[in-house]
Amino acid sequence: MREWTELVAAWEDIFSLPLTVVVMILAALIAGALWFFWPRWWKAVLRMRLRRGSSRAPKDRKAREVSPEELEELSASEEELPEVAPVVFLALADRYAAEGRYAEAVRERLRAMVRELVDRGVITHRPGWTVNELAREAGASRPPVAPPMRDASGIFTDIWYGKRPALSEHDSRMRALAGQVHEAVAGEA
Fold it and tell me: Exposed (0-12), middle (13-18) or buried (19+): which is 83, by Cβ within 10 Å?
């Protein structure tokens, strides 16, 4: 207890009471902001570390090939769009659809569409985008892509955020929309 009293006395000798109050309020605000934004800032720190570590590797902007099992592990561990070829997402979507997991199939088909748009330079992927922002950006960049992306984002939002049950019709519709996006992007390339 004596050490604590001496520490407080030493602090008071150096800093005045108003300055101490301001420092304590600032510390509380910073701690509160960090607590509130915990997942976002922690993911940003991890991303910066990963970028710094991967900056020594050769810059290969092509999506790498991985198996659907590896992609399923990536999908479960990150919210970002893994850098894999769109066909890998489609293979995983087909597998989910065959298992009757239509919500996951819809998600993977949307990821395939986004990966194709990113790979073809229609949009630049920015983590944290909402599906609607992504559809708007793609439509602004290439107008023929706007209707299928808008419809796809509506289906995804209804299922994942609206908590509506996913059906095989949703997967079939997403498959058709993915084809429309592919035709619109490949036709203008």
Answer: middle
CATH of domain 68-188: 1.20.120
9-30 pLDDT, tens digit each: 888 888 888 888 998 999 999 9
| CB neighbour class for 26 (10 Å; exposed up to 12, middle 13-18, buried from 19) | exposed
| 149 touches 114 (CB < 8 A) | no
Cβ partners under 8 Å of residue 97, min gap 6: 105, 168, 171
70-84 pLDDT, tens digit per residue, is 666 655 545 567 777
Domain layout of the chain by residue ranges: 2-54, 68-188
Cβ atoms < 10 Å from Cβ of 140: 12
What single letter denotes the amino acid at residue 141? S
Question: Taking a C-beta distance cutoff of 8 angstroms, is the pair 123, 185 a contact?
Answer: no
8 A C-beta contact, residue 94 and residue 100: no
Predicted TM-score (pTM) of this structure: 0.60
Nearest C-alpha neighbor of 84 from the set 96, 105, 102, 67: 67
